[in-house]
């Protein structure tokens, strides 16, 4: 299947790897996570943004900013939603 920007996809298998470059974090996105295609490359690979943790608040105070990851994947690693 050829994906387009803004398509919604599901991750077939968990992915782990380098995360936020500025913080040196590792990303962990579970299988079944739903994300949005943000870039499509000529070879069919896509970049998908996954939001894996929503921001948390205590009243008006931000406790955790949440986390999202952009991962480059092949069409075989994702499925349409």
Describe this structure in words.
The protein is built from no helices and nine strands. By secondary structure, the protein is mainly β. It has one domain. It has a five-stranded antiparallel beta sheet with strand order 8-5-4-1-9, with no helix packed on it. It is elongated, with a radius of gyration of 14 Å. The two termini are about 10 Å apart. The mean pLDDT is about 90.
Shape: elongated
What's the alpha carbon Rg, rounded to whole Å? Answer: 14 Å
Report the sheet-strand fraction: over 45%
Helix-strand makeup class: mainly beta
First-to-last CA distance: 12 Å
Strand adjacency order, main sheet: 8-5-4-1-9
- How much helix, percentage-wise, in residues? under 10%
Helical stretch tally = 0
Q: State the low-pLDDT regions, or none.
A: none
- Work out the count of structural domains: 1
Provide the residue-averaged pLDDT: 88
In this structure, how is the largest beta sheet organized? 5 strands, antiparallel
Give the beta-strand count.
Answer: 9
Order of helices and strands: EEEEEEEEE
């Amino acid at each position: 299947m050829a994906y387009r920007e803004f398509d919604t996809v599901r991750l077939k298998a968990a992915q782990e790897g380098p995360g936020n470059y500025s913080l040196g974090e590792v990303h962990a996105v579970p299988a079944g996570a739903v994300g949005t295609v943000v870039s499509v490359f000529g070879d069919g690979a896509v970049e998908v943004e996954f939001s894996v943790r929503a921001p948390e608040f205590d009243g008006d105070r931000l406790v955790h900013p949440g986390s999202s990851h952009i991962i480059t994947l092949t069409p075989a690693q994702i499925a349409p939603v």
